[in-house]
Write a structure and sequence with these properties.
globular; 8 strands; about 90 residues
Length: about 90
């Protein structure tokens, strides 16, 4: 499972970033997209949609960070980024 400290940005591209809840992610099928212990490869893209919101992120720097967008219930779309927790 990869754990990321996340931030959201609302109010435009030059707006401040604000701390958000940590993201915990594991995805596996025939092989690991996001391994049980480790991080996803650079360029890995993950999208999700459900009652708790939706998002689309891309991982960089050997999975050390991600960048994308998210939308949570009752809110508009926001910039969404994260850095791997130590």
């Amino acid at each position: 499972m990869a754990v990321y400290n996340t931030e959201i940005q609302y109010g435009g591209q030059n707006a401040d970033w604000h701390k958000d809840a940590d993201l915990q992610i594991v995805i596996g099928s025939r092989s690991s997209v996001v391994p049980q212990s480790g991080r996803p490869a650079t360029g890995t893209q993950v999208s999700w949609s459900g009652p708790q919101g939706n998002g689309n992120i891309t991982f960089f720097d050997d999975g050390a960070r991600f960048q994308g967008a998210a939308e949570f219930p009752g809110e508009g779309p926001v910039g969404y980024r994260g850095t791997a927790a130590s």
